[in-house]
Amino acid sequence: MEQLADWRPNSSWTMEEWVRETRALREALTVLGAAVPHCLPGEPSDCGASVWAHYATYAGMLKGVSHVKAECNLGPGPGLDLAERVYADQLAAHRH
């Protein structure tokens, strides 16, 4: 996470919103079976990385875990095609 040390996202979220959303990503990872330590700033196992670095890391992990689960459980074919179309539609909707 060193590369993210001075990075600041382009967002109007407050720090409280960043922390809430970062924790939500971490919880989603936990539900999907990816154990993630509680190491945000101020938490017992604080690792020294920023909330933004955690958010970016967790978002990437969640994308990877969900893609692997879809591939493993749906296999090639219409189910995976549908999952990929829904993902693309959601992404496009959020980009406006």
Short description:
The protein has 96 residues and is an all-alpha fold.
Q: Could you explain the architecture of this structure?
A:
- With about 100 residues, the protein is an all-alpha fold.
- It has one domain.
- Helices cover about 60% and strands about 0% of the residues.
- Helix 1 (about 15-30) packs parallel to helix 2 (about 50-75).
- The two termini are about 30 Å apart.
- The mean pLDDT is about 90.
Low-confidence stretches: none
Question: What would the principal axes of the Cα set say about the shape?
Answer: globular
Largest beta-sheet characterization? none
Number of helices in the DSSP assignment = 3
- Helix-strand pattern, N to C? HHH
Q: Give the overall average pLDDT.
A: 90
Tell me roughly what share of residues is in helical segments.
Answer: 55-70%
What is the total tally of β strands?
0
Number of domains: 1
Query: How large is the radius of gyration?
Result: 15 Å
Category by helix and strand content: mainly alpha
In angstroms, what separates the terminal alpha carbons? Answer: 30 Å
| Residue share in β-strands | under 5%
